[in-house]
Amino acid sequence: MTNLHTMEQCPSPIALFNNKLQLVTASKAWHSLLSEIEESPRNNYISFFQNKISEYSNQLLLNNSKNIHFEGEVSFVKTDTNELYIHYLIQPSEENFIVYLKDISAEKENQQNRILLAQASKIAQIGSWIFNAKNDTLKWSNITKQIFEVPTDFAPSIEKTLNFCKNEIQVDTLISNLNKSLEIGTSFDAELQIITQKENEKWIHFCAEPTLKNGRVHKVYATIKDITQKKNIALELALKEKQVKSSKRALLENKQAFKSIFNSTFQFTGFLNLKGRLIDINEPALNFGGLQTEDVINKYLWDTYWWKSAPKEQKKLKHHFKKASKGEFARYEAKILNKEQKIIYVDFSIKPVFDEKNKVSFLIAEGRVIQEMVEARKKLKESEKLHRTLLEHSPTGLVLNDALSGAFLDMNNSFKKSTGYTAEELLRMNHLDVIPKADKNKELRALKEVLNNGLYGPYEGHYVNKNNELVPSLITRVLITNSAGQKLIWSVIQDITHIKEKEEELLEVINVASEQNNRLLNFAHIVSHNLRSHASNFSMLIELLGIEDDVFKKVEIIEMLNSASKNMLDTIANLNEIIAINTNLNIKTEQVNLKNEVDEAFTNISELIKSTFTEVENNVPETVSVNVVKAYLESILLNIFTNAIKYKAPKRYPKIVINCERVKGYTVLSVTDNGLGIDLDKHGHKLFGMYKTFHGNKDARGIGLFITKNQIDAMKGKIEAESEIDKGTTFKIYFNENY
Length: 739
Known about the structure:
5-stranded antiparallel beta sheet
């Protein structure tokens, strides 16, 4: 059973109702809370709770449970006409009902205040600005974003807020006040001039109040209101009051107040009427030109001292004034004179001010000195021009590519010349488009090294020029990052084609020298061997002649000496011919028609061809010419053709087929026969040796192919042989096209 005494002493508003809906007892807090309610039939709280208990009883019967509770909110009018908001909770207790109350008036009032504040901000167009000092975050309300003319998804920050300030003075004002607020917890109130995202100039009223937590600034709450119209109206009013002379005292006070602000600005500021005459000008502008007010007031702006540097500047000013007088904001870089008569660059603007009928009533001219910026810009341009000149005239190729896509972004004349492409063609290509397939994996590894380490090279690589020819290059690549964060690669490319050609020429000279040394050594062995053989033979025969008494045998020995002498003379003649071929450096060359030379060689051995029933087939095109020593060519052709007939197969008539083709800088003459053939596995290494024979012919001397090879070598050519026993032989004679 509920303890009635305990309930009466309970500090919380609580009451007990029986099942007949009668109030049995209530706490003092209950009576204290409800005592402020004004008595009226519509304000009877007892009847209200009896009705609610009755509803609750019906719900209990329907749900067949006593474990549920019933709660809600209600308001009553107090004697002071204010609202008393109560949260109630009804619970069953045996055969009775307990009603708990809680005063929620303060919560309701705060909720209503927030709603009213939001409505008031919306009506008054006051935005909020909340900076959290703990996590360095900034929040703007939608109205604030509307004032700054940014999209609703704009993410604000302190840095971005400062960027909206019109000039350095506005930035310094905001930073100084905000730092004081964060450091010592002071509130501040400032009027700032901003340039919105849509490039509209506005004045805002910035009012900030910091909140403390644990003795430190936790947040800074600020309100922002667009006061541009108010400011413009103030300027317009000041101008009109100046023109109206009805009240000299009011005019003087306003003028002094306006002048104080007007002359304290960092910028040059003046007011113009619609004809372009100066109505007023601030002191910074006058001091800059060393002028007095009477020197410029009521004069056309373009006729004043500042603009006398050049007629071109006066013309430019008139043009922009006309634009502004029609309602357009005009801004450009102007050149004006300072008091030392030096030309100074200023950021100059003319802003139209509109009246209530949206007509231009006057214009505000403003200027800010930007001489240092312009000089820095000029130096930058000069530096860029110098670097561009060096880039374009450098004998070394310089190329700029995007590091990720490989796209060409810039290149100098040296690179364009070595690849044969124009700048327009290269700008449509990427790096790998001019890399040969064989080098692409190597180049990808090089690019990876550049991206990882910032530098790679120098290394040897190749580019493919427009004619699909390889350009050997010495390459160094450097990774850079531009102001936009884009990764780029500068490549320094030295075309080493000339160096490679010289290397090849040097290698060829070395090979020729080596080959000539080998020939000389071989020739020395041959001379030594052959002359020693003849000398030994002579010595032996002379010795026999000295000891032989028989006259007939002496005659036989003398005949043998004559034969040995003839053989020795033949050997010496052959050796002289070889020496002449290898030592004659000034042999005369001439351009000859190859088909005609082949026909002429066949004509010279026509009797041999007829007598052996040899078939000849000359397939050399009539247009083919070669640069040769004609005597050598005749000797080569006669030697090869006669060998083809001399070493014919016994069971078939000889056939000689002549063909011609071009192979990598050579004109190749192929002579194919159907003769005995040569076992190249056995004799290939000595095929072109001196006194080497392979078929056992009695009249074979083994000197013909040796001389032929020496003649071909002397003309910077080469000779190769393909042969199969009893099927025939093909000799390929390579005539050097660069000889």
